[in-house]
Design brief:
The complex is a heterodimer. Chain A is mainly β. In chain A, 0% of the residues lie in helices and 59% in strands. Chain A contains no helices and 11 strands. In chain A, β4 and β5 form a beta hairpin. The termini of chain A are far apart. In chain B, 0% of the residues lie in helices and 53% in strands. In chain B, β7 and β8 form a beta hairpin. Chain B is globular.
């Protein structure tokens, strides 16, 4: 099945700093989503981005489908950005199923 | 519009018992999928339902089963619980699956003792 690798596994920032999270995947995809898992366990949908670039406030994401990677940018980080960020993909060969990376644990210190 | 609703949120069961978890999708969503999250294995796909039909199933033993009702609500059942079944069980819904945005519920925390 499709493989999803996220980097870095851990990231510690000072409030106000910028960061880039990366997601590599091993096959073509028809769905790629970025999620933020809050302290209570819920996966909050950040972006649906199988290709192209999107922005939402301080967050933006870019997926280069031909090169099989996606990037999540967080600018002017805040302590509330702390948590685990997951990339998840759905490939044509595994319909209706998201395959998740292991996540990036982001800690933003005041 | 209400989000994906899962019940119960927290439960403790004894080894050998069975458990049923419930999920109500976002109104208008007909695809419901289930995932298990553990510290060791991460997030793993259990199964997906659309219009009461299971379209895909993950690599879990037969003790894990699910179903979907005509109103798109879904339940999953785990029989003969084992300690390793302790996990966060997440339900997700989308309009029809297959390339649509997927939204997750808050999850059900299951502890098996």
């Amino acid at each position: 099945g499709i493989q999803v690798e996220q980097s870095p596994p851990d990231l510690i920032l000072q409030e106000g700093a910028n960061s880039t999270l990366r997601c590599n995947f091993s096959d073509s995809v028809n769905n790629l989503q970025w999620f933020h898992q809050n302290p209570w366990g819920q996966l909050i949908n950040l972006f649906y981005i199988p290709s192209g670039t999107k922005q939402n406030g301080r967050l933006s994401a870019t997926t280069v489908a031909t090169e099989r990677y996606s990037l999540l940018y967080i600018s002017s980080s805040q302590t509330t950005d702390s948590g685990v960020y997951f990339c998840a993909v759905e490939s044509g060969g595994s319909n209706y199923k998201l395959t998740f990376g292991k996540g990036t644990l982001l800690t933003v210190n005041p | 519009k209400a989000g994906v609703t899962q019940t119960p949120r927290y439960l403790i069961k004894t080894r050998g018992q069975q458990v049923t978890l419930s999920c109500s999708p976002i109104s208008g969503h007909r695809s419901v999928s289930w995932y298990q999250q553990t510290p060791g294995q991460g997030l793993q796909f259990l199964f997906e339902y659309f219009s009461e039909t299971q379209r895909n199933k993950g690599n879990f033993p037969g003790r894990f089963s699910g179903r979907q009702f005509s109103n798109s609500r879904s339940e999953m059942n785990v029989s003969t619980l084992e300690l390793g079944d302790s996990a966060l069980y997440l339900c997700a819904s989308s309009v029809q699956g297959g390339g649509n945005t997927i939204y997750f519920g808050e999850g059900s925390w299951l502890t098996v003792v």
